[in-house]
Amino acid sequence: MIKKNYNFLKLTVLAILINPILWFSISAQKFAFTNGRPIQKGLDAEPYIDTPTRQKIDLSGKWDVLLEKISFLDKITNKTLQKEIEIPASIDFCGRMVFQRSIYISNRQIKDFCFKLVALGMNYEAEVLVNDIPIGKHAGGYIGFELDIPDGALLPDQNNVIKIIVSNELNSTSTIPLRKRFHGWKNYGGILRDIYLLATPRLYISDLSVSTSLDEQLKSGTIRVEGKIFSRNFGGDTSNSKFEGKKEITCIVNVELYERFTNNKVVEGKPQKLVVFGNEYVSFQTSVKLIEPKLWKPETPNMYMLRTVLLVDEGKTQKDECSLNLGFASFRIKGNSLLLNGEKAVLNGVVWHEGSPDYGASLTYEQMEKDVITIKSLGANAVRFAYHPPHPYMLNLCSRYGLMVLEEMPVRNVPSDVLCEDEFIRLAENQAREMLDRDGRFPCIVAWGIGTQFDTYVKKTEKFLEKIVSAIRERDDRPIYYGTSFILNDACVSKVDFVGIELPSCELTAFQRLVSSWKILHPSIPLVILGYTKEVEHKNRNGFSDPMSQEAQARFYIQSYRILKELGTSASFIDAFADWRNDNPMLTYGFDNCYVHPFGLVNEKREKRLAYNAVRSLYSGDKIPLFPAGKHHEKFPWIHIVVGFIVIILLGKEYNDRRFSQSLKRALTRTYNFFVDLKSFRAASLFHTLIFSFLIFATIANTCSGLLYHFRSNRFVDYVLTYILTFDFIKERIVYISWNLLDGILILFVFFFVLAIIVSFILKLFAVLIKSPVKFSQIYSIVTWGSAPVIFLSPLSMALFRILENTTLGQISLVIIILTIIWSTIRILKGVSVVFEYKPLKLYLIAFMAFCIIFAGLYLHYANFYGDVEAYIKFTGNMFRGVW
Known about the structure:
This protein is α+β, with helices and mostly antiparallel strands and about 900 residues long. The chain has 4 domains: about 30-200, Jelly Rolls (Sandwich), CATH 2.60.120; about 205-325, Immunoglobulin-like; about 340-620, Alpha-Beta Barrel (TIM Barrel), CATH 3.20.20; about 650-840, no CATH class. Helix content is about 40%, strand content about 25%. The protein has 23 helices and 35 strands. The strands form 9 sheets. An 8-stranded parallel beta barrel has the order 26-27-28-29-30-31-32-33. It has a 6-stranded antiparallel beta sheet with strand order 4-3-6-12-9-10. Strands 17, 18, 19, 21 and 22 form a 5-stranded antiparallel beta sheet that branches. Strand 21 (about 305-310) and strand 22 (about 315-325) form a beta hairpin. Helix 13 packs across helix 14, helix 14 (about 670-680) crosses helix 21 and helix 18 (about 740-770) packs across helix 19. The longest helix has 30 residues, at about 805-835. It is elongated, with a radius of gyration of 33 Å. Residues about 1-30 and about 235-245 have low confidence and may be disordered.
C-alpha cells in the first residue's frame, strides 16, 4: 500500500512540475509596430514645410534590420532577426539595432543640391553612416535631429547605402529618461518617426530660429528671425573636392508674413544684404512688426506662415525659401491665475500618451488627427503631452484645432543625487534647448514642463531646477513648471512659475483632501492638476457600485470635476485620453494586462467608454448623464480558506498515524533527538516526509498568496517591487500570482518545492566537501522537518487577507511570519549540524558568510544596474515619507 501511495505521489509531483511549463510559457509577441507611411507633405509637414527650392527624398518604407546581442529570452519570444521592416516603426526590443537601406541619387541632384539627413525621432542613441562614412551621432529619442552630409559622401548615379545604428538601452544615471520609470511609458526602440533626406540649394538658409512676442497692450506683435546663410561649393564643380566655388556671393534675405489659412500677405520685412564667402556661412538677424495681430486662442486659432527667402543677382533670382507656421499668443501668470492674452483662462484637458496597439509609438498622421478631433469633440480646450515631447505634427494639429498644450521633458522618477550630477544636468539642458528650438514657435504651448515625480522632497534638487529654468529662459518667457506627488512636503516650489500635482487613483474623499491640502499650502500659485485618474475594467458594466466598472469611472470624474471647480482650479487634466503601455509590469493593474495603464476615456483601440460621454457633458456644460448603481459583491478569496482547511484536514488525517504523530511531536519538542534518529534512519519515513513537505509548501504558498493578495493594490509595494526586481519577467509572474489566486497558489507550491530541492542539493554538495556520508533523502528530511513550525501558519494563512486590513493585527502577523522563518532556518542549520556531525558554531559562521556573499552579490548587481544604489534608496525613503 505504501509503495502504491509512493508511486502515486511521484506521478503527482511529475504532473505538478509539468504544469509550470504551461504557466510560464511565453507566447509569441508582436515585435515591430510598423507605420511605414510616406512622409507628410504640404503646409503642415513640420518641421520643414515643402517649398519650391527644396526637395525631400523620403526614406520611409523597407529597411533591413539586424538586432545585435539578442538574448535567449528575445529568441523564444520571436524577437528574432528580420530581413525587412517598414519604417517608421516602434520595435519591442532593448539593445542595438542596425538599420540599412539604399537610395539612388542622380548626378544632377548632387550637382545642384547639398543634403542633410532629417529624423523626427530615433530612440535613444543614433549613429548615422553614409557609404560607411560617419556623419554624426545624436542622443535623445523624442526630439528630432538633422545631420549635414558632406560633399563626396554621396555617390552620383548609383545606390548609396545609409546605415543607422540605434540603441534604446538606457541606464540609471546618465540617460534621459532613466532606465526604470515607475508607472511610466513604453521604451520602444528604432526609427520611430519620419526620416528623409532634405535637399537644399548649395546656397541655402539654415539654423532658422523664430520667436514671437506681444507688447503689454497686445496691440503689436514682433517676429524675430535668426539664421545662417551657407555656401557649399555654390557655382562650383562638386565633383572636384578642391574647387571651392565662387569666392564671394552677394545675397539678400527677406521675410514675409502670410495668414495661414487665406495665404494673404500681411507684412514684409526690410531686405537685408549679406556677403557670403565660399564654403562658409554668415549669420543674420531680422525682425518684423505686425500691428493688431490676430491672436491665437482655442475659440479662434489664428495662425500665420512666415516665409524666409534668399535672393541673388540683386534680388532677381530666388535661391532658397524656408517657411514656418507660427502664431501670436500671450501666456502669463498673475497671482494664482493663468492668463491667456490678458484674460483669465481655465484649462480643462486630458493627458495624451503617444502610443497605440497597432503602431506603438509610431502613430500615423491619420491616427494623430483622429485623436485631436476626438479630444476637441470632448469639449476639452487643453492637452498635456505627458512624459516627453510629442511628434511635431501633434503640436501643429493643436495649433490649428485650438488646444492649449503643456509639453514636458522626459525627466521622471529621478533621485536628487542623480539630478544634481553635472553630466545629467548637461543632458537635461541640451534636451530643454532642443525642445524649445523645435517647438518654441507653436502658439498653442502654454507652459514648459521640466519633468514629473522626480525628487523634490529635498532642497538639493533646486540646483537642477535652477539650471534647467535658466536654459529655458534663454529662449522663451512662457511659464515653467514641474509635476509632483509630494503634496504635503514639496521643497522646491519656489524655483518655477507653478507646480502641478499628479494624483494617484484614490477614493473621492482622499482626492478632495489632497487637492485641498495643496491649495492651503500654496495659495499664491495657480492650482494645477496635471493628472487625476480612475482605473477601469473595459468590459465591466456592473454599475457604479462596482469600483472597477465603467459607470464608477464616469461617476468619479463627474464628482471630482465638481470638487476641482469649487476649489477654483486653474487647470486640470484627466489622465488619460487613452490607455497606454508601460515598460514594466504593474502590480496594481494586474487584473487585465499588467503592461497597460487602464485609465483612458477610451481604450487603446480608441473605443469610447462611458466616462468619455460624462466628461464631454462636463466640459460642454450639457446635462450630466445618470448611471445605474447596479449590484456588486466584493469577490471573496475562498481559495485561501479552502487550502487552509485542506492542509489542516490532511494534517489531522496523517496525525492519526502513530509514527507520523510521534515524528511531528519529536521534531517540534525534542529537535536534537529527532535529528540524531534521522541520522540513523530511525526517524520519519520518506512517505511521511513527502506528505509533510507538501503540507508545508501548501502552507507557505497560501501564506504568500494571502500577502500578495492584500498588497496587490498597494502603490508603494508596486514601486518597491519595480526597483527591486530588475528582471521584469519575475515581476510579471508575481503580478499574475497576486491576481490569479488558484494558479498563484499552485505556482508558489511548485516554486517552494523546487526551492527545497535546490537547498537540498546545495547541502548535499556541502556534505561531499566535508566528506559526510549523508544521503539526499536525509537532507531533504532535514529541510522538511526543520521547517515544521511553518505548519502553524496554516490557520493564519486562511484569514491573512482580512487580518492585514487591521494595522495592529497585520503588524503582529508579519512579525509572526518573520519569526517563524527565522526559527525554521535555525532548526534546519541545527539539523545539518547533527546529521553531518559538524560543529554548530562553525556551521553558523559558514551560513553567515554565505548570507554575506549573497548580500554582496545582490549589492554588486544593483550597483551595476543602478549605478548609485544609495541615491535610489534615499529616493525610495523620500517617496515613502512624502507620497505614501
